[in-house]
Amino acid sequence: MKNAAIMRLPLGALAAAMNLINPEAVHCREQIRDWAFFYREKLNGRGYPFHIDAAGLSMDVRSIAPAGPIKRGRGMKLLGLDLGTTTLSAVVLDGDTGALLKTLNVPNGAYMTPRAPYERIQDADAIARRAEALVEALKEEYAIDAIGLDGQMHGIVYVNARGEAVSPLFTWQDGRGGERFGSGSYAGALYDRCSAHVATGYGMATHFWHTVNSCVPRGAAAICTIGDYVGMRLTGRAEPLMHVSNAASLGLFDERAGNWNFAAIERAGMGTGLLPRVTGGYELLGRDSGGAPVACGIGDNQASFIGALRDMEGTLLVNLGTGGQVSMLSGGASATEELELRPLTGDRSIIVGSALCGGRAYALLEGFLRSCAALAGYDCPDALYEEMNRAGLEHLRDASLPRVDPRFNGTRADPALRGSVCGIGTDNFDAPRLIAGTLLGMAGQMRGLYDAMLAAGASPARRLVGSGNAVRRNPALRRALEGAFGMKMRLSAHREEAALGAALFAMTAAGVAPSLEAAQRLIRYEGERP
């Protein structure tokens, strides 16, 4: 029986339930006994009859201990926590109006000195301490009713049986999987053994390296993502619970079954003993020290998708930061060499096309123009982006522009591919037209990924939403994207889409909103009134 259903029974019914349980099932009998005796205790020690606080209650009891009912409607506050690679962000969402009442950002600052050229690691406990400090700072100002979190995907942390980190966070940038192994690489060897592609930096490629080299940390009982680990720290859990959106990001995952590809992992020689339980639903990890329910952590890409779209059906999300992504609900679309299917919840996925060089293409052009100015003897202390944006906007409709392929970092399928500039003539070889051509090239790359989605079976989008600093700060790029897609682009009024998405997920997991779609109705776009 579910905890919530059990707790609606009178104590006499609980005793009767105990008698129905197999006497050999001692653990179950003790669990129900604890529910009966302690379910009115509170995590702050002010419950009854024993006034036991969180430290004296088991995780099962902590998950249902009534630190006060969850408020619904006016006055409800949701906290969203985004654990990024470079920045940790937290927001407080008003559950009535959808307004972001507070936003806090702190540097991640947890990178550790690498011991080898391929290593990219962060201090998991340092991240957890900074995250906990953000939560406590916001709880001092607001009565928080539920907490949601998301985090950087693909990387892994090893934890022991007490839920303590016994390793650093091996981030998505870690290069172990690309190291030489046999006639190829560790990631290549995984493909040979499992017939499944696992990219370098994905958790299973990293774990494979540790397994082959006998480097799995002593005492490791499970692997988890950084979001899972922070959730464990907030709730006192000893075992991770991994959302499907994070689990799939590690590789060797069976999307149809919604669980690990156990057979492939066994064939790789890694064993399955360190794999945590996976959930595709809206589950709670437990409650924090103040009694607020904490939702299972989700992947940052999925959190951004949730937090940017008021209506997921029929909407295409274009995100341009350093990289670039186009995302939409997959419908009947299939994954391809350039498109990924990423689980959103147990029954839905998003299809994602990624550009390794998204907004960075514009930054490269800014650096080139700056170097030209320096060659002519001019000092440019400030960035040139505002001037570039004005020039690009003025020349976007010119009949003759250079054709710019912005794939300067290659693609996931072909990392060796490089960008190009062609179609240069005597009438268009100048900085303003090169800027405009680059903007059209960036928009064209996003449109190409969308066309690949349509070819893979996705339904045409009816709405276009943009996110990311490159889109927000550059009206010329927005104009180019609108031309490429033939739709007006809307921008979320909220700047921290991932943290907002985590808060909306928590709103659903805590039962405050009847569905994720209902929670997303709080999202507003720029120019709209609350």
Report on the architecture of this protein.
With 530 residues, the chain is of the alpha+beta class. It contains 18 helices and 25 strands. The strands form nine sheets. The chain has a six-stranded mixed beta sheet with strand order 20-21-19-18-24-25, with helices on both faces. A hairpin with a 3-residue loop joins strand 18 and strand 19 (324-329). Helix 2 packs antiparallel against helix 3. The longest helix has 25 residues, at 431-455. The protein starts with a helix and ends in a 10-residue tail after the last helix. Mean pLDDT is 86; it is low at 1-27 and 63-71.
| Estimated structural class | alpha+beta
Low-confidence stretches: 1-27, 63-71
- Largest sheet data: 6 strands, mixed
Could you say which overall geometry the principal axes of the C-alpha atoms support?
A: globular
Quick rundown:
The chain has 530 residues and is of the alpha+beta class.
Please give a handful of descriptors for the protein shown:
about 525 residues; alpha+beta; six-stranded mixed beta sheet; five-stranded mixed beta sheet; 18 helices; 25 strands; globular
Give the topology, please.
Layout: H1 3-7, H2 11-20, H3 26-38, H4 59-62, E1 77-83, E2 87-94, E3 100-107, E4 121-122, H5 124-141, E5 146-151, E6 157-159, E7 169-170, E8 180-181, E9 184-185, H6 186-194, H7 203-212, E10 222-224, H8 226-235, E11 241-243, H9 244-247, E12 253-254, E13 259-260, H10 262-267, E14 277-279, E15 284-287, E16 293-295, E17 298-299, H11 300-308, E18 315-320, E19 324-329, E20 339-345, E21 348-355, H12 360-375, H13 385-395, E22 403-405, E23 420-422, H14 431-455, E24 463-467, H15 469-472, H16 475-485, E25 489-491, H17 497-509, H18 516-520
Parallel strand pairs: 1-5, 5-17, 11-14, 18-24, 24-25
Antiparallel strand pairs: 1-2, 2-3, 4-7, 6-10, 8-9, 12-13, 15-16, 18-19, 19-21, 20-21, 22-23
Helix pairs in contact: 2-3, 5-8, 11-17, 12-14, 13-14, 13-16, 14-16
